[in-house]
Write a structure and sequence with these properties.
Blueprint lengths: L2 H27 L4 H29 L3 H22 L9 H29 L2 E2 L2 H20 L14 H25 L7 E3 L5 E4 L13 H36 L4 H11 L1 H12 L3 H17 L1 H8 L13 H18 L3 E2 L1 H19 L2
Antiparallel strand pairs: 1-4, 2-3
Helix pairs in contact: 1-2, 1-7, 2-3, 2-7, 2-9, 3-7, 3-10, 3-11, 4-8, 4-9, 4-10, 4-12, 4-13, 5-6, 5-10, 5-12, 6-10, 6-11, 7-8, 9-10, 12-13
């Protein structure tokens, strides 16, 4: 890459996050005009692209699976802040907001990010391969977390309705955090090799690990460049969530005018917040690093539950009103189908485009039934 191209790339990637913060500050207090909302939407897209760029720089410096882990945790921490912020605004629908947003994030990651990654990777490379042992453990953790926090509350009897009693919520929060920390230890310390991109033969069978130091890409950035990108990544993510919060009243009013269920608001917010991870996952799939894409997808699903539920449990100490976590019957059926299909997808460690298409159909089903339950 030529020097002017490098300077241009660095220039936009630095300017856009700063511009996003400036727009966020000005729009936070006054955003009732359509022109302001249009600028917010345009800058939001730029902040998403900036977050993807800086996440890739940091990932190149620290290596996998730490790179995908940084992006997943950063996005989820900001997502938690957004959920708590919207719940404190009050209203009749806030009791289900955490459930709807977390469930939307799970369905988008397990079907949307995974489906797109498998489709893009398989269409470009024929067959794509990954480590079934590492990916299988990630899927098992996601299933346990989703069942514990989103399914069981529908069937418990200590509290009225699909919600946990205070003691049950405390137990679910501690168990979720414990599961997430245990997986992080496995992914980053105990069995890190199970989560690295793999090489494969012409039949898609895994033959070894990708040598990321000799993959034809540029040398890793310096510590200073990586530190700057980490700071700009956090700025970009804060801007994405803040700008999404600015747009949320417009989204809510639009959903209400169209006659859609309030759960659609959580779906739209989850789509916006997960956009950086989605783009990063698809880019890695195009490079035949599907393992990294799956790390992002399942890591995001885990973080969305394993960090959000404990944070919401703590927040309920001062938040008034009920916290409905239990899924509706239609949502439970969609989750069960997704779990079953996901198991069949990861069991062999190699897939072709059909599996990706199946996941995308499940995502489309979730989106459609969110609008027309």
């Amino acid at each position: 890459m030529s020097a002017p191209a490098v300077r241009g790339r660095l220039q936009w990637s630095v300017v856009v996050p700063i511009l996003a913060v400036v727009v966020l500050v000005f729009a936070w207090f006054r955003h009732d005009h359509w022109a302001v909302l249009a600028v917010v939407a345009a800058v939001l897209i730029g902040a998403v692209l900036g977050a993807v760029h800086h996440a890739e720089v940091v990932a190149h410096k620290v290596g996998e699976p730490f790179g995908s882990l940084i992006l997943a945790i950063a996005v989820t921490v900001i997502e938690v802040g957004l959920i708590v912020m919207l719940m404190t605004s009050g209203g009749d629908n806030t009791s289900t907001y955490a459930r709807d947003t977390v469930f939307a994030a799970v369905m988008i990651t397990l079907n949307g990010i995974v489906g797109l990654s498998l489709m893009v990777g398989a269409l470009k490379h024929g067959l794509v391969s990954f480590n079934a042992a590492g990916t299988g453990s990630a899927v098992a953790t996601v299933i346990a977390l989703a069942g514990l926090t989103l399914v069981l509350p529908t069937f418990t009897t200590s509290a009225q309705g699909p919600q946990y009693s205070p003691s049950q919520l405390a137990f679910a929060a501690i168990a979720s955090l414990a599961l997430y920390v245990a997986f992080l230890f496995t992914q980053t310390v105990r069995h890190r090799d199970f989560f690295l991109p793999v090489t494969s033969d012409e039949h898609g069978r895994m033959t070894g690990l990708v040598d990321l130091d000799e993959d034809g890409h540029a040398d890793p950035p310096s510590a200073g460049e990586a530190g700057l990108s980490l700071a700009l990544l956090l700025i970009s993510l804060v801007s994405v969530v803040g700008l999404a919060k600015v747009l949320s009243p417009t989204i809510e009013s639009t959903v209400e005018r169209l006659g859609f269920p309030y759960a659609v608001v959580g779906v739209v917010i989850a789509l916006l917040v997960l956009a950086p991870e989605s783009i990063a996952a698809v880019r890695n799939a195009a490079r035949d690093h599907v393992q990294t894409s799956l790390n992002l997808a399942y890591g995001s699903a885990m973080a969305s539950i394993g960090l959000t539920i404990p944070a919401i449990a703590v927040a309920m100490i001062w938040l008034s009103g009920p916290l409905v976590l239990g899924l509706e019957p239609t949502q439970i059926v969609l989750l069960v189908i997704t779990v079953f299909v996901t198991g069949l997808t990861v069991v062999q460690g190699r897939v072709y485009a059909l599996q990706g298409f199946v996941h995308l159909v499940l995502l489309a089903s979730f989106l459609f039934l969110s609008i027309q339950p």
